[in-house]
Write a structure and sequence with these properties.
This protein has helices spanning about 40, 115-125, 170-180, 215-220; strands at about 25-35, 50, 60-75, 85-95, 100-110, 125-135, 140-150, 155-165, 180-185, 190-195, 205-215, 230-240. By secondary structure, it is mainly beta.
């Protein structure tokens, strides 16, 4: 008889280190925007083996814009040009039957075509090629994008945030939205979990100055979601991804 394990605790530190990385990279100058949504709205958008992860009965859709820096394979040095580019993703929050909390990406827009093609081919991730720019001026960061391929062509927008004071102790919700130690995705029809590890997030309060986007609609959220319930900024962290873990389905007893 199969059973579902309790979710892992929400923790700002990775539960399991990645000793032998499959991928290394840095995530820099991140803006985290989040909207509260009902779990039943999210459930049909998740891969088999994953269900919406909730906090006090709610789940969230996130729009995360940042700068990817020096993506590298194994322990090799990161690639300076092809491995460095702006990226914006739309993500959901998931948990599997093993209790592993993670994210599910609905879309990942990036400005380098070669990494987009490699990620689509190697990991079957929904990467999309977009024209993108990240501009920093003092405490203000602006992210712009317009999708090129495969579409919908032109989807993107413009997001501007102003970085505020560092957060000494993030709230339970802020940990829930940012401290994610893996992703759930379908790989050739199999539910798969790709773990990651990184230092504790250095988070800042942030003020949303501008948000004109249609990436959420392109990702399946066509209805108006209103203003985001959480806006955060982080200067970034180095990240290590481990090898894909066992299928994310229900474990045997």
């Amino acid at each position: 008889m199969s059973r579902r394990q309790q979710p892992q605790p929400i923790t700002p530190d990775p539960p399991t280190p990645v000793a032998r990385p499959l991928l290394t990279q840095e995530w820099l100058d991140l803006a985290f925007l989040h909207w509260e949504v009902a779990p039943e709205r999210v459930a049909p958008l998740l891969p088999a083996g994953a269900v919406p992860d909730t906090l006090h009965g709610s789940t969230y859709v996130g729009l995360v814009a940042f700068r990817m820096h020096r993506v590298g394979w194994f322990r090799l040095p990161g690639v300076p040009y092809l491995g460095s580019f702006p990226e914006t993703n739309v993500r959901l929050y998931s948990v599997d039957a093993h209790g592993r909390r993670g994210v599910v990406f609905r879309s990942l827009d990036a400005s380098r075509l070669v990494p987009v093609l490699m990620a689509r081919a190697a990991f079957r991730l929904p990467y999309l090629w977009s024209r993108m720019r990240l501009a920093v001026e003092g405490d203000t960061v602006t992210y712009t994008s317009a999708r090129r391929w495969p579409g919908p062509r032109g989807a993107g927008g413009r997001i501007t945030v102003r970085r505020g004071e560092p957060i000494a102790e993030p709230t339970e919700l802020e940990h829930f939205l940012t401290a994610r130690w893996g992703m759930h995705y379908a790989f050739f029809g199999r539910s798969t979990y790709l773990p990651n590890t990184h230092p504790r997030w250095p988070l800042h309060r942030a003020e949303l100055l501008e948000c004109r986007e249609d990436l959420l609609a392109a990702a399946g959220f066509a209805e108006p979601l209103g203003d985001p319930v959480s806006v955060l900024f982080s200067p970034g962290v180095p990240v290590r991804f481990g090898a894909p873990a066992r299928p994310a389905g229900i474990p045997t007893p």
